[in-house]
Input
Amino acid sequence: MKLISETIAINILDQIRHEFRDEIAEFEHRAASCDTCTTPGACCLDAHFVNVRISRLEAKAIRNALSELPNELREKVEKRIGETVSTYKLDEVIDTSTATYACPLFEKGVGCLVHTTAKPLPCIAHACYSSPNDLPPDELLDAAETKVERLNERTYARSQPLVLLPVAISGRSSMR
Ligand code: SF4
Ligand code: SF4
Output
């Protein structure tokens, strides 16, 4: 397999994310509008619900996006990431498929800090649909996640399990 650089891979990741966003947009008109939400961020801060796991490359993209934030905000978010890992003991979790946490990337008054730059695929897919029949088919997310998995393999020459987002971006991850 011919490897590609992390920089090129992050550009391809961006394309995958944009294509996936376009696919999901065809369903989103059936969901409640986030612009008029009376509980903005409830989806991201629900410590019993959020279970976003990401790949090494997605973690790198998020780290890059955070590095562009103004210093004060970046330091605040870095602190929150560490606190999230500690509070929910996320670095001790054995089965990451069931672990949940309040996402440290949600900033009150701003929203998701990586919304336009590095939003994870499950977050792009998420919206408040009143009927399960209105949801985008799971196959769309599965297909996009498979593309990202292949991209990680082309970048790092191996397959690695997804890691809980706060751990993946905290520097405490085993993804190397
Ligand atoms: S996804 Fe739902 S809870 Fe989250 S901001 Fe949008 S409408 Fe509100
Ligand atoms: S990454 Fe963004 S959209 Fe996803 S849970 Fe965190 S704040 Fe919400």
Q: What stands out?
A: The longest strand covers residues 53-54. The mean pLDDT is 95. Residues 32, 34, 37, 39-40, 42-43, 127-128 surround iron/sulfur cluster (ligand 1) (CB under 6 Å). Residues 6-28 form the longest helix (23 residues).
